[in-house]
Design a protein that fits this description.
The complex is a heterotrimer. Chain A is α+β, with helices and mostly antiparallel strands. Chain A folds into two domains: 45-115, no CATH class; 131-341, MetI-like (MetI-like fold, Orthogonal Bundle). Chain A has helices spanning 5-20, 24-27, 127-163, 165-179, 183-192, 200-214, 217-231, 234-241, 246-282, 294-298, 304-309, 315-341; strands spanning 48-50, 56-67, 75-84, 86-96, 100-108. In chain A, a hairpin with a 5-residue loop joins β1 (48-50) and β2 (56-67). The longest helix of chain A has 37 residues, at 127-163. In chain B, 79% of the residues lie in helices and 1% in strands. Chain B has a two-stranded antiparallel ribbon. In chain B, β1 (79-80) and β2 form a beta hairpin. In chain B, α5 (87-121) runs parallel beside α12 (285-313), α10 packs antiparallel against α12 (285-313) and α11 (272-282) runs antiparallel to α12 (285-313). Chain C is of the alpha/beta class. Chain C has helices spanning 56-64, 86-95, 103-106, 113-124, 129-142, 159-171, 189-206, 217-223, 254-267; strands at residues 9-20, 28-40, 45-49, 71-76, 79-80, 96-99, 177-181, 209-214, 226-231, 234-239. In chain C, α7 (189-206) links the parallel β7 (177-181) and β8 (209-214). The longest helix of chain C is centred in the last third of the chain and has 18 residues, at 189-206. Classes of the chains: A alpha+beta, B mainly alpha, C alpha/beta.
């Protein structure tokens, strides 16, 4: 199958995103748990290139928000309290992938200034920082869960298709069973019977495991079909004639035929699994506070006043749509590649 | 007919399997409903263990399953600790509400998707096809959650629609006509959200099915005969395209129910979704099992219905069976 | 043929049934093989002729161990092939090889020509990478494929070249019996002639025996010592073509063919 430029471009975008995401700490000006109780639901800071006298500077500056007298939660800009934005500053310590430590951030302002590019939430935590950390978590939970599902699907599908007989019967009945349940109900059902209160790092792994396990059925069925047809091919029979073991045949001849399907499935499943993580966290059953994911950041929108008044809290939705679009482009590029190959 | 009997039997076994699977997960559960109770100092330990024994929670797994099966046979589906009532009493009205929502949404989605798909497949205007494909592509990148939230925002900010729940306060006092109107208003938000979420896939498949139907030899022959385009599309190609679409419907019932769960929670529509969530957070295990099974029943019914529709709609299948 | 001489291959009363139909439907029983007897000596060619579905391929599959017969026995070099342990089966499979009819299907589209030929060595773990490569090149040369084409994929080769490749692959493990399951079907007549000539040469060089499966009576009579006709799983006729090769199959190499004809006539010791 010849993949065109569109496919390569989409794949590149997604790979780059995955590569940058772990460096959320660098791009984020603040730690995701850093609270500013005096600035709840502050709007995004306006970037000014002109100071109060009207002169133009190359270096932008931002001004602190000040609560308007007599109101609660309505802010005005305090033009008297402005801070220039510096780049490559030293700030709070963060870790990349839990291994490397650094204190250098892409940009920031000296205290007591606060730069809220995407506003702040109910606890005064910076929206952009939380979004960036959340991106890393949500993105990777989708990809890792996809890898788990496809791994399970390939394993069980190949066994069912290649060996046939009882293996096939049992595995196919299991497939039908899993497909007889709406996936979110199954997901919640499994989640229900696991501990409710778990700390965030465990929650992340648990989430990946649960989402990955729920979806193995459909890919497994497809892979089984492939294994079934590949098993009868002349070159497979020939290899068996030469005394090849089952492991060799599966590795050398059957597995390569599945790669195309696996790629298609990955492009389709990854965005669904990101949405699954978002859904679970949104419902409070996924990653919990204070660790941000797109899901639990969006769950605050269930309160009507937040829903209507604070538009910057919708930022994770924008990120979700953006990533969804990237995956959609990848999937449609694959479809066009497949169509032209026939 | 034999085939249908086979399918019904298969579905039954499937549901039995689902119930066993759900019960198996109970085994993994580290705690139960009464653990929360234990934390309350006012309730003595003896009371808690007495309640436990009363509900049979101290028995082994197979015994519990047998007890539960007996409860199913009586039509109760177990007991809800939180509501202090048999589970089925909770589930039936909720299942009905979920059904109302999903059927309305499906109808709405198909009403929009079919014409769009047909228009899209119509070769007379490539521009229309492009616009429709692009917009449905854009829609497909948006997850169900955001449709629900977006529509909620719309409802709350414009105050056009009543928000939350299925009925407004005091609606029981209204007459039939008013009550229906009230229900419909509450229904619009979640139904539209669900319909929008299902729309992209439907349009894409309708378009593909129509295109495939239009490429058939007999269509080209009909065109050569000079049959006008509209008649060609609607009377000749569309019925053929319905076959794969009905199959699609059967396959998409699962994701429809899942999307409905989320939408119900966001709009506070009293369906199976919010009940399940509440039961999970409260560790009301029999409600959880019951809700999951009811959802599964809806799915299985949906695909059975789909098979029946296929037999009805496609004369080839009917002929094949008779032979 | 003398009876006291040990045959290379002996098939005794081989039977195999196939059932069709799901477990809740009425079952149809089909006799794929019904008490088939065959013998084949070293250096000889036996042709198995019959219509499609007569059981020829089933027999071939049983001989190489890809399928199991229900009754009967298969003796190779006097020893039974069936019911052997794992190791014994491997040795025997080395001695009997099968060439399929569909040359394109028999070669993996993902492997290059040299990889296809060296695969049996890879599976058996014989030799280093270099050694395997060299043996594969030599095998290719033996069947008339230039080493310059070693990196070509099967779909880039013609049907005749693919069959040569399949033959090279089969021969790389030095088998003693080669089964050709309609290996010439679908090839041009002239190409068929070339392949037949190649096979005849190899037969002499490497003391091979052939079991040739075909539905082409004429071809069978021309190249086989003995022809066995199979119909609905049973042997219905057996004969040895008394006449040698009357005319060559293709214009080329005519002198070589008549030599072969003499050799084969010499192998016969009577009808």
């Amino acid at each position: 199958m010849r993949y065109g430029k569109r496919f390569a471009l989409s794949l590149l975008c997604i790979t780059v995103l995955h590569g940058i995401a772990p460096f959320a700490g660098f791009f984020a000006p603040y730690d995701y748990a850093e609270q500013n109780r005096n600035l709840p639901y502050a709007p995004p800071s306006k970037i000014h290139f002109r100071d109060t006298q009207g002169t133009f500077h190359w270096r932008p500056c931002i001004c602190l928000p000040k609560e308007r007298q007599g109101t609660f939660g309505v802010y005005d800009e305090d033009r008297g309290n402005c801070f220039p934005v510096h780049f490559l500053v030293r700030g709070t310590r963060y870790r990349v992938l839990g291994v490397f430590q650094s204190t250098i951030h892409l940009f920031g302002v000296s205290s007591p200034g606060k730069i809220f590019v995407l506003g702040s939430d109910g606890y005064g935590r910076d929206g952009l920082s939380r979004l960036l950390y959340g991106t890393c978590l949500s993105l990777f939970s989708g990809s890792l869960a996809t890898a788990l599902t496809l791994g399970l699907g390939v394993l069980l599908g190949t066994i069912a298709g290649y060996f046939g007989g009882w293996w096939d019967a049992i595995i196919m009945r299991l497939v039908e069973l899993f497909l007889a349940l709406p996936w979110l109900y199954l997901l919640l059902g499994i989640r229900a019977f696991l501990p409710l209160h778990i700390d965030p790092s465990q929650a992340f792994l648990l989430l990946i495991a649960v989402i990955g396990v729920v979806g193995w059925a459909r890919p497994a069925r497809i892979i089984r079909g492939i294994a079934l047809s590949e098993r009868e091919r002349g070159y497979v029979l020939a290899a068996r004639m030469f005394g090849a073991s089952d492991a060799y045949v599966m590795r050398r001849h059957i597995a390569p035929s599945t790669y195309g399907v696996l790629l298609t499935q990955a492009a389709l499943l990854a965005p669904q699994y990101i949405a699954a993580e978002v859904t679970l966290s949104f419902l409070g059953l996924g990653v919990t506070e204070p660790v941000p994911t797109w899901g639990n950041m969006l769950s605050v929108l269930q309160q009507y006043d937040v829903l209507v008044s604070y538009w910057w809290m919708w930022a994770p939705a924008g990120a979700l749509i953006l990533v969804g679009t990237m995956y959609w482009r990848l999937a449609s590029a694959q479809q066009t590649a497949e169509v032209t190959a026939h | 007919m034999k085939y249908m009997a086979h399918r019904v039997l298969q579905s039954f076994f499937l549901l039995v399997g689902v119930s066993i699977l759900s019960f198996l997960f109970v085994e993994l559960s580290p705690g139960d409903y009464f653990d929360e109770m234990r934390l309350t100092p006012q309730i003595s330990r003896e009371t808690v263990s007495r309640l436990r024994t009363q509900h049979g929670l101290d028995q082994s797994l197979p015994v519990r399953y047998a007890l539960w099966l007996g409860s199913v046979a009586r039509g109760e589906f177990g007991f809800s600790f939180a509501y202090n009532t048999p589970v089925s009493h909770l589930l039936w009205p909720r299942a009905r509400n979920t059904l109302i929502l999903t059927m309305t949404a499906t109808l709405l989605a198909w009403l929009i998707a079919l014409p769009l798909g047909v228009l899209s497949a119509d070769e007379s205007s490539k521009w229309v096809d492009y616009v429709i494909s692009l917009s449905t592509g854009a829609l497909s990148a948006i997850p169900d959650l955001l449709f629900a939230l977006g529509l909620l925002l719309l409802a709350v900010s414009t105050r056009l629609l009543p928000v939350g729940g299925m009925t407004s306060l005091g609606s029981d006092d209204l007459d039939m006509w008013e009550r229906t109107r009230n229900l419909s208003l509450h229904l619009i938000g979640p139904a539209v959200a669900l319909a929008l979420a299902s729309l992209p896939t439907l349009v894409r498949h309708t378009r593909a099915a129509m295109l495939e139907a239009l490429n058939a030899p007999y269509i080209r022959a009909a065109r050569a005969h000079g049959i006008p385009r509209r008649r060609l599309l609607l009377r000749h190609a569309l019925p053929v395209a319905l076959n794969p679409l009905i199959s699609l419907f059967g396959l998409s019932v699962g994701s429809l129910l899942s999307a409905s769960l989320l939408t119900e929670v966001i709009f506070s529509w009293p369906g199976l979704g919010p009940l399940l969530l509440e039961a999970i957070l409260g560790r009301d295990i029999y409600v959880v099992i019951g809700a999951v099974i009811f959802a599964s029943v809806l799915l299985v019914f949906g695909s059975l219905l789909c098979d029946v529709l296929l037999v009805v709609a496609d004369p080839r299948i009917r002929a094949g069976r008779a032979a | 043929m003398s009876e006291t001489q040990c045959h290379l291959l002996e098939v005794r009363a081989l039977s195999k049934k196939r059932t069709q139909g799901r477990w809740w439907q009425r079952q149809f029983e089909v006799r794929a093989l019904d008490s088939v007897d065959l013998t084949l000596d070293v250096g000889c060619t036996l042709a198995l002729v019959g219509q499609s579905g007569a059981g020829k391929t089933t027999l071939a599959m049983c001989l190489v161990g890809l399928e199991h017969p229900d009754e009967g026995d298969i003796l190779f070099d006097g020893k039974s092939v069936l019911e052997s342990g794992e190791k014994k089966r491997m040795r025997t499979t080395q001695d009997i090889q099968l060439i399929f009819q569909d040359s394109a299907g028999a070669l993996s589209p993902r492997m290059s020509a040299v990889q296809v030929v060296e695969e049996p060595l890879l599976i058996r773990g014989e030799g280093t990478r270099q050694e395997r490569h060299e043996r594969a090149i030599r095998a290719m040369q033996q069947v008339g494929i230039s080493p310059a084409w070693k990196n070509r994929r099967p779909h880039e080769l013609s049907g005749g070249q693919r069959q040569r490749l399949a033959i090279a692959r089969a021969l790389i493990t030095a088998p003693r019996l080669l089964i050709l399951d309609e290996a010439l079907a679908g090839l041009d007549l002239s190409i068929q002639g070339q392949i037949v000539n190649l096979l005849m040469e190899l037969q002499i060089e490497q003391h091979l025996s052939y079991l040739y499966i075909t539905h082409n009576h004429e071809l069978a009579s021309r190249i086989a010592n003995e022809v066995v006709i199979l119909h609905e799983g049973r042997v219905v006729e057996r004969f040895s073509p008394l006449t040698g090769v009357a005319e060559p199959l293709s214009g080329e190499r005519a002198p070589g063919r008549s030599e072969l004809g003499d050799l084969r006539l010499g192998a016969h010791s009577g009808a």
